[in-house]
Specification:
Layout: H1 3-21, H2 23-26, H3 32-38, H4 44-63, H5 65-69, H6 74-91, H7 98-126, H8 129-158, H9 172-182, H10 200-220, H11 222-235, H12 239-258, H13 260-266, H14 274-286, H15 291-320, H16 328-355, H17 362-381
């Protein structure tokens, strides 16, 4: 077996884990209405937790990833995470009690908390800096296409019965086999002397990327939590057309991720501004109540996530070096899911307090303000650092 073949198989194995991480919550979103109808006697907040519960446990698990990596090797961590992913994800099929269902969703969050840092950190561990922009772009692209496939597949399965949607998590078996066959068995934590979770010095060192990821996800998640409501009431779009636009956003992000390496190489000093500016254009577009502007705004937001996530991962991995999987990547993963979780908790109260309860596009206006904050954060923390050339 040649070195090139080993590299390709390792890359494919790591990217296979990237396909799964976004599915923790997004995969079940199309079936949430049917699930809510099935658990009609349960409080509405418990039904909403079916989507948000994994995010909380992902954050907690990420913060303890470093001590765990000092005990277990990469293949053991990945195997444990993927086995738990399949069992907890697909196991929801058998749960007819919402409390047991939420317990399984919590375990699913633990599994993604184990997988997520490996899906990006191992790229920094195995590959030199000049390859990382391209690979982080591929990782983000796989994440997006995983969301598209999982959303469509879960929606189809849910038409059979509400609990069939959870079979989408059996896709984890593919990555599990690849890990068994090809993932090298490294001891990542041994290279890092700090054996405590969430060391303050790590946050201080990587705060531009961590805060950037938090802001990126807070702003982005204004879209999935509000678009369907606004588009149906303001533009009168059907559920089918809304779904097409939302899936189209992931497709746009996928293609931008594929080309991120070339993008990073061409716009080395200005690419840091792309994500906040594209998000700003997206939410400004939504203020114009036409179908064309709704589509254009969604395309802008798709491009923003397609460039923003791999950019932050790339900069952090270059700065973190081979220790990225146990230092900055768990922090970025925690920031990503924390941003998703707190977005509605922050945006909705601000929207009502500033613009009133009758302004349907108020969340988009708050999003515009947060984009300006994001731009300021980028300007104040991203100096014109020297980056290695990007290998195409």
């Amino acid at each position: 077996m040649t070195k090139t073949n080993i590299s390709r198989r390792v890359t494919a194995t790591i990217l296979s884990m990237s396909l799964l991480t976004v599915m923790a919550g997004a995969a079940i979103a199309p079936a949430l209405g049917i699930i809510k109808a099935h658990f009609s006697e349960a409080p509405a907040i418990l039904v909403q937790f079916i989507v948000s519960m994994p995010a909380l446990l992902i954050i907690v698990t990420n913060l303890f990833f470093l001590p765990l990596s000092r005990v277990l090797r990469t293949r053991a961590i990945a195997t444990t995470g993927l086995l738990l992913y399949v069992v907890a994800g697909a196991g929801c099929f058998f749960m007819d009690d919402i409390h047991l269902l939420l317990a399984m969703r919590a375990l699913l969050g633990v599994s993604v908390g184990l997988i997520m840092p490996l899906s990006t950190g191992l790229l920094a561990y195995y590959f030199p800096p000049e390859q990382q922009a391209r690979l982080m772009g591929l990782s983000a692209a796989m994440n997006q296409i995983g969301g598209v496939v999982a959303t469509l597949l879960a929606g189809m399965l849910a038409t059979i019965e509400w609990n069939y949607a959870f079979f989408v998590y059996l896709l984890g078996l593919i990555a599990l086999v690849m890990v068994w066959l090809w993932l090298p068995n490294e001891q990542l934590g041994s290279a890092n002397k700090r054996g405590v979770p969430f060391h303050p010095r790590q946050l201080l060192k990587f705060h531009p990327s961590v805060i950037g990821m938090l802001l990126l996800m807070m702003i982005f998640f204004i879209f999935p939590t509000n678009f369907a409501i606004v588009a149906s009431q303001q533009q009168g779009l059907s559920t089918g057309l809304i779904t097409v636009i939302m899936v189209g956003l992931d497709v746009v992000a996928f293609f931008v991720g594929l080309g991120f390496g070339s993008l990073m190489n061409r716009f080395r000093q200005s690419v840091k501004y792309f994500a906040p500016l594209l998000l700003l254009l997206g939410y400004v577009s939504y203020l114009v109540p036409t179908v064309a502007m709704a589509v254009l705004g969604s395309a802008f937001i798709g491009m923003a996530t397609g460039v923003g996530v791999p950019y932050l991962n790339t900069i952090a991995s270059i700065k973190g070096g081979k220790n990225s999987a146990t230092t900055v990547m768990p922090l970025l993963s925690a920031a990503l899911y924390l941003g998703q979780f707190v977005s509605p908790l922050i945006v909705m109260p601000l929207s009502k307090a500033i613009f009133g309860v009758d302004d349907i596009v108020a969340p988009y206006k708050v999003g515009i303000a947060l984009c300006l904050v994001f731009l300021l954060q980028v300007y104040s923390t991203r100096n014109f650092q020297s980056l290695p050339p990007i290998r195409k």
